Structure formats: C-alpha cells, structure tokens
Amino acid sequence: MSSIEDIRRMSREEREKRLQELRAELARLKAQAHRGSLENPSSIRKIKREIARILTVMNEEKLGKSKSQVAATAEKQ
C-alpha cells in the first residue's frame, strides 16, 4: 500500500497505471468474495482506500492545488 506522499511523487502515468492495476485487483477480489473463496476480506477495503488516495491526488492535480494548499486545508480540520 502506498502512502499519500508516495502517490504524490509518482508521475501521472504511473498513477494511472497503478489505478488500472488496483481496479483489476479489486474486481478479482470481489469475484473471489462472491464465490466464497476470499482469504482476506480486509484486502478489499485496503485496495479501495488506495484507489481513493490516487483519485484524490489526481483530482488535486486537476484542480491545480499545490501541496501547501492541501496541507493548510488538512491542518484546519
């Protein structure tokens, strides 16, 4: 699992590739859960969280927020 700082250091292409990999893994795990053969149910939650982190960073980049703006907003909450 990647931390938010690790994700921010990735290039845009790396983030997109990682996002595709995670979505494929999530689909595979959901299929296993449906069949009842999932060994670690918490892995679905972890993958969903990493997907959310990547999407958050991509959205921040899209909106043009800098790291300092994001950090300042986080400190206020």
Textual characterization of the structure:
- The protein is mainly α and 77 residues long.
- The chain has one domain (4-76): Helix Hairpins (Orthogonal Bundle), CATH 1.10.287.
- The chain is 81% helix and 0% strand.
- The protein has 4 helices and no strands.
- The chain has helices spanning 4-9, 12-35, 42-63, 67-76.
- The longest helix has 24 residues, at 12-35.
- The chain starts with a helix and ends with a helix.
- Keywords: Coiled coil, Ribonucleoprotein, Ribosomal protein.
Main attributes?
77 residues, mainly alpha, Helix Hairpins, 4 helices, elongated, ribonucleoprotein, Ribosomal_uL29, Ribosomal_protein_uL29, coiled coil
CA radius of gyration is: 15 Å
Name of the level-1 CATH class = Mainly Alpha
In terms of quaternary structure, the protein is single chain
- What is the averaged pLDDT score? 89
The SSE string, one letter per element, is HHHH
Q: What's the total number of strands?
A: 0
* pLDDT < 50 stretches: none
What is the fold-level CATH name, i.e. the topology? Helix Hairpins
Largest sheet, in brief, is: none
**What's the architecture in CATH terms?**
Orthogonal Bundle
Protein name: Large ribosomal subunit protein uL29
Pfam families: Ribosomal_L29
GO molecular function, one term: structural constituent of ribosome
InterPro entries: Ribosomal_protein_uL29 (IPR050063), Ribosomal_uL29 (IPR001854), Ribosomal_uL29_CS (IPR018254), Ribosomal_uL29_sf (IPR036049)
